[in-house]
Amino acid sequence: MKINVIEEQDIAEIVTNRKNRDAVQYDVIDERVKSIVQTIRRDGDEAVRGYIKSLDGVDLNNVVVSAQEIEEAYTRVSDDMMAVLTEAKENIQTYHAKQKETSWYSHNADGVWLGQQVTPIVRIGVYVPGGKAAYPSTVLMNIMPAVVAGVSDITVTTPVQPDGTVNPMTLVGADLAGASRILKIGGAHGIATLAYGTESITPVDKIVGPGNAYVARAKKYVFGDVGIDMIAGPSEVCVVADETANPAYVAADLLAQAEHDELASAVAVTTSEAIASAIQTEVERQMKTRDRQAILQESVTNQGAIYVTTDLEMAMTFVNAWAPEHLELQISHPFEWLPSVKHAGAIFLGHYTPEPLGDYFAGPNHTLPTNGTAKFSSPLGVYDFMKKSSVIYYTDDALEQVRQQVEQFAGEEGLDGHRDAVRIRFDEK
Fold first, then answer.
1. Domain ranges of the chain
2. Known catalytic residue at 243
3. What is the dotted CATH code of the domain comprising 27-228?
4. What is the pLDDT of residues 164-214, one digit of tens each?
5. Can you name the CATH fold of 3-22+234-349?
6. Which residues bind Zn(2+) (predicted)?
7. Catalytic: which of 96, 259, 282, 326?
């Protein structure tokens, strides 16, 4: 992991290069996604089964996970893991309950009532990546906010394994969280099925959850017909470390992020060249003990970096320019510096708050904005599963008090129909 001593004028170029690290030509993927989506819209269940056979190598008669399969999955999850899943679910539910908004109404003038009605989305779809791998944390993080919001119909879809089953951890996590049904459909064909439905599957109103490039591009393609949460890019962590930081802790947290995939970006920003050198040494030492050697080597070499800044103010300038997905402040007074953080997906304070704590257990959502989008978007939350309607009520007397203003507005815009919709209510008086 290379050490770079930087000046403030270097930050813009560094951030630009980091945002372009996954600049992939998606033309081929987009054409394939378009074909898959259009075919499923046209041919329904037959097309879904066809894609599962051709892309996943499995011949399925029924794409819906049965109650018996879910029961069997519980027998394959240890009691210890069930206890962890249950506690994590409770932490996530408790945290997200504080995000829930309520309807409100006001009566500020005679004959006028205004308000906002907040209601949950009716049907949502959750995409869970995996096949051989299992991501129960992703299941909980994507379903629990919807449950708290009051969503009544939750469809989970996930890739089928070669033997025609779904990983038991995924099944147990989804059932524990409150999924209405679980489908054995992965990839772009899973997204298309959620978005448009088939003869046997009801379409959803919004799709959330991470996936590979085909999943991400499919979500982008169906957006507008359904809602989506975000288009997530490669994962990121930025660890800000001062002279009080433990280089071993910093290195461990960098490697925890780098092991996601080759494009994962693990970056340390420190005010101390001595700490930078120690972090570099620790990364090399610890990396030799990790399992995912090939991924780590490529991620650390090509996407990882240690930047040395003149002070913490400059470090925060870097943070806010990049707007990282995960930000750790391994510094002596993290709460004092928290107000300086303007853009970050999730913020981890102090030396004993590693990023995996947020991934699995603490409660805040781990579905976070990446690639600088934290400048304008937020972690997945209850608000993503709710919608708002404006409520307006005027009596005849109240409308008469403002009719002249409304009619003048309509006249200025050349919309006589708008004007007359108000005027007709008084012409008969």
1. 3-22+234-349, 27-228, 395-427
2. no
3. 3.40.50.1980
4. 999 999 999 999 999 999 999 999 999 999 999 999 999 999 999 999 889
5. Rossmann fold (3.40.50)
6. 257, 260, 359, 418
7. 326
